[in-house]
């Protein structure tokens, strides 16, 4: 009887062992905690096909926006720790949110494990050309100083990096604007066009189409030097505000109890995707830089945000 029970127990374990050895054997879902069309969404979709090819299974992008990204991250934590659900770490989720929310529904140091770095992306300050017809930093600042709290800025949500970038900008430059939070940058940009808000602190990766529209202009960028693709956008450094030169970072994460061999497989596939010509070309066009090979700990990520 004991032999029979042992055999049955071993038989029951075989599917689990095979599944672990063959990871992945079904699509992997990447949960994006922001709305479609925003920088986080664009960056993940830029690696989607190539990472899926490296895994041998599709990488499916699923947007679960709301509550400044908390909804998507909570969903990742509710999933099984088997590697089939991955999340995206940002300067918001693993830096700003830690200090902004008193009752954060997750611990970025204990609840998540890093898969690897994805990209560094410079932020830009966007406004309508009717506000700054010459697209000059000084023009926008002069108007903001002339009418404190009359102009409005939009962000992808309270406590997000876009929100904190605006607060840092106002503190450093000495201006005041009203905050209008959204469920992502895409709807904020839509209202920038419509005149509902006047300024958005966006990411260069999701700003390009808007800059080409002729209605929106960027008056400053978070980069050590001007980008080759956008030579007319001055850096905060040259404008005299070096403290504002902090590009956004993006990484891939899983639940902290995900097996190390699964995390290693995901890390290998992510790095392979980032090294492909297709992703390099896409990132170059978006004005962002890949950070392959980096498995930044969640503690280090928090410290750098």
UniProtKB/TrEMBL annotation:
CDD domains: PBP2_Bug_TTT (cd07012)
Annotated InterPro entries: BUG, Bug_dom1
Chain ranges passing through the membrane: none
Superkingdom of the organism of origin: Bacteria
Keywords (A to Z) from UniProt: Signal
Gene3D superfamilies linked: Bordetella uptake gene, domain 1, Periplasmic binding protein-like II
This protein's name: Uncharacterized protein
């Amino acid at each position: 009887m004991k032999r029979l029970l042992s055999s049955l127990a071993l038989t029951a374990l075989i599917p689990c062992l095979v599944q672990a050895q063959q990871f992945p054997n079904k699509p992997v879902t990447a949960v994006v905690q922001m709305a479609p069309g925003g920088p986080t969404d664009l960056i993940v979709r830029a690696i989607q096909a190539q990472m899926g090819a490296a895994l041998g299974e599709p990488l499916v992008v699923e947007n679960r926006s709301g509550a400044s990204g908390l909804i998507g991250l909570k969903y990742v934590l509710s999933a099984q720790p088997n590697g089939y659900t991955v999340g995206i770490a940002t300067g918001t989720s693993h830096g700003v949110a830690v200090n902004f929310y008193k009752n954060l529904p997750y611990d970025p140091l204990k609840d998540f494990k890093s898969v690897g770095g994805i990209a560094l992306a410079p932020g830009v300050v966007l406004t309508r050309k009717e506000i700054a017809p010459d697209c000059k930093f000084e023009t926008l600042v002069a108007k903001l100083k002339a009418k404190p709290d009359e102009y409005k800025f939009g962000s992808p949500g309270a406590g997000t990096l876009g929100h904190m970038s605006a607060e840092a900008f106002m503190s450093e430059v000495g201006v005041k604007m009203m905050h209008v939070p959204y469920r992502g940058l895409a709807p904020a940009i839509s209202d920038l066009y419509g005149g509902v808000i006047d300024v958005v602190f966006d990411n260069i990766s999701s700003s390009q189409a808007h800059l080409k529209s002729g209605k929106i202009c960027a008056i400053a960028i978070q980069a050590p030097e001007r980008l080759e693709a956008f030579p007319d956008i001055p850096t905060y450094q040259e404008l005299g505000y070096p403290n504002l030169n902090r590009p956004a970072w993006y990484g891939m994460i899983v639940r902290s109890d995900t097996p190390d061999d699964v995390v290693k497989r995901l890390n290998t596939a992510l790095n392979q995707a980032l090294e492909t010509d297709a992703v390099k070309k896409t990132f170059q066009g978006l004005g962002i830089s890949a950070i392959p090979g980096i498995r930044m700990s969640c503690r280090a990520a928090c410290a750098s945000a």
